[in-house]
Amino acid sequence: MTRHAPAIHRLAALNVGPGAADDVVQDVFIAVYRGLPGFRGEAQFSTWLHRVTLNACYRALGARQNLSLGDMPEPAAPHDPVGAGERADLRSRLAQALQTLPRDQREAVSLRELSGLEYAEIAEITGAGLGTVKSRINRGRAALREWLTRAGVGP
């Protein structure tokens, strides 16, 4: 739990917002505890854990409709009010942009960029082919880039 909780929380926060992420993480670890005897080991544990997390996120999203990912907490950093405000604004815009992506693209992009998973792992988690995963990530990144550019966010 200690090893996987931070990554699971980041993935949950991206998908359901920081306010609901703690509840999702709790649901994930309860589901993992209950499902562990049935885990056959045909996939890596981390692959199974990410799928359980995404399923818990979708259940939470089904229960709540008005979610905002822009309230993500600031990482610990030296006191810099201007920089903190700029990072909060960027995080809010990125959260808005992510919500515009279709579910399959948002899932693939978040697993790649936030969880740092390899394409093959994402394919296993999502049940999509490797080429499909690469395409979803490419289209998702392009859509994010376009949305953020229109919103005035530059590199």
TrEMBL record:
Pfam families in alphabetical order: Sigma70_r2, Sigma70_r4_2
Biological process according to GO: DNA-templated transcription initiation
PROSITE patterns: SIGMA70_ECF
Keywords in alphabetical order: DNA-binding, Sigma factor, Transcription, Transcription regulation
Domain RNA polymerase sigma factor 70 region 4 type: 93-144
MF terms (GO), sorted A to Z: DNA binding; sigma factor activity
Domain RNA polymerase sigma-70 region: 2-64
Family in the record: Belongs to the sigma-70 factor family. ECF subfamily.
Name of the protein in its database record: RNA polymerase sigma factor
